[in-house]
Amino acid sequence: MSSAExxxxxxxxxxxxxxFAARRxxxxxxxxxxxxxxxxxxxxxxxxCVAGYWPINTEIDPRPAMSEAAAHGKVCLxxxxxxxxxxxxxxxxxxxxxxxxxxxxxxxxxxDTLIPEVVIVPLxxxxxxxxxxxxxxxxxDRTLExxxxxxxxxxxxxxYSAQQQTALPxxxxxxxxxxxxxxxxxxxx
Length: 189
Hints:
By secondary structure, the chain is α/β, with parallel strands linked by helices. It has helices spanning 3-28, 33-43, 63-70, 139-150, and strands spanning 50-51, 75-79, 88-92, 98-100, 106-108, 118-121, 125-126, 132-133, 154-158, 179-182, 185-187. The chain contains four helices and eleven strands. Strand 4 (98-100) and strand 5 form a beta hairpin. The longest helix is centred in the N-terminal third of the chain and has 26 residues, at 3-28. 35% of the residues are buried. Keywords: ATP-binding, Ligase, Magnesium, Metal-binding, Nucleotide-binding.
């Protein structure tokens, strides 16, 4: 690892630590307001295949908005197949039987593999320019790059407003968000 790569890794580690602390505090004080804002945004994409996520730890919960979206179109959840690989997406319905996947995220036990047009992206931190800092595995970056190479794909970051940072240490491979939805509203870079 070069000194520039090492410095970037240290900057990302510090940004994640700050964001995790802010997210934990926001999560403890949270209401369902953000899910309502997300539902309003998704209403503009009815009929599109939407990928949500099953929240882990202190991630903001998109499931109420996913349930509403499922009444108007296909919804799917990400499945980690292997380290270094893009995500696949398995169809989800509100009463689906769920099993534990990697990182303790729940995934549908069975369902068709779908290709989403709208991806709700979990994150650790974001900035107003659409930068996103995840957990460091690169799953969403690889996946969004692949999806966007095939067709336009909308990436919606979903987070507590407290997770916003002024600027994030990003790499050329980091995929930008088209918008960020928080309990305070929608940020469009």
